[in-house]
Structure formats: structure tokens, C-alpha cells
């Protein structure tokens, strides 16, 4: 199956960077808490995709070496990749919000997992990463 897109659980000083999706009926998961990432462009790799999308959406230019966890998920329309990165809290000052979505914020991971506005399958993937990271 072909790779279609990638998302990033980006932790800044322990908090998760989340993006509030636009509140439009023509998009999936309107007005929900999303994570940086999106669809593949051309022949880019999953890493190149998630890094490009992160820079476009929140202005942070991360490196492949910043990606500390990766997992692929088979979906009906192809394979999606999910990454995690743990960066210093000070990087939040460099966030420059792009033109998609209503805004961004930092959220404690547990709050994201319990928030009814979190996109459910992304919350499950964040929870998987945290469980594996913490050894349980």
C-alpha cells in the first residue's frame, strides 16, 4: 500500500503542541484538536512529509534526527505514518502559526487524551507512544 501522509506528536518541554482545526463542514474532524502533519506531496518520504508539514503549519524546522519514534498505520486509502519528537520548551517561542486552522496551543498529554475535541485515532497513537516511551 502506498504512503499517503504523516502526523507528528510534537512535545515541547513535555507538553503536546496541538492545532485547532478550522470549523468547516467540508473537512474531516472540523473544530477538533489536531497534530502537525498532512498529506504526502510528490515522492517525498514519510519523514520529509511530516517535517515539511510541521514547518508549514507551525513554523518549526525540525530535523529527521529529532524524530524519536515512528509507526506506520494501514488505512483504507493507504499507509499513514505517525512520528513523535521531544523538544525543549523554549522552542514554543519560535512557533509561527500558518494559515490552516484556528490556532495552536500546548496541552498536557493527559489533557489531550481526555479532551473530547481530540481526534480519537491521534489520541490513541499519542497514548501508544507515551506508553512505549515510559516502558509500560
UniProtKB/TrEMBL annotation:
Per UniProt, residues of the Nudix hydrolase domain are 1-128
Please state which protein family the record places this protein in: Belongs to the Nudix hydrolase family.
Keyword terms, alphabetized: Hydrolase
**Family annotation (Gene3D superfamilies):** Nucleoside Triphosphate Pyrophosphohydrolase (3.90.79.10)
Matching CDD domains: NUDIX_Hydrolase (cd04682)
Q: What is this protein called?
A: NUDIX hydrolase
- What lineage does UniProt assign to this protein's organism? Bacteria, Pseudomonadati, Pseudomonadota, Alphaproteobacteria, Rhodobacterales
* One Pfam family matching this protein: NUDIX
Gene Ontology MF terms:
hydrolase activity
Cofactor(s) this protein requires: Mg(2+)
Amino acid at each position: 500500500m502506498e504512503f499517503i501522509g504523516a502526523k507528528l506528536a510534537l512535545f515541547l518541554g513535555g507538553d503536546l503542541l496541538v492545532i485547532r482545526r478550522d470549523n468547516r463542514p467540508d473537512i474531516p474532524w472540523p473544530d477538533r484538536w489536531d497534530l502537525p502533519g498532512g498529506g504526502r506531496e510528490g515522492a517525498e518520504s514519510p519523514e520529509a512529509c511530516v517535517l515539511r508539514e510541521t514547518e508549514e503549519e507551525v513554523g518549526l524546522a525540525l530535523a529527521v534526527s529529532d524524530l524519536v519514534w515512528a509507526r506506520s498505520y494501514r488505512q483504507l486509502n493507504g499507509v499513514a505514518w505517525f512520528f513523535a519528537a521531544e523538544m525543549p520548551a523554549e522552542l514554543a517561542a519560535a512557533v509561527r502559526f500558518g494559515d490552516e486552522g484556528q490556532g495552536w496551543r500546548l496541552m498536557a498529554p493527559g489533557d489531550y487524551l481526555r479532551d473530547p475535541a481530540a481526534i480519537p485515532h491521534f489520541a490513541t497513537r499519542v497514548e501508544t507512544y507515551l506508553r512505549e516511551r515510559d516502558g509500560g
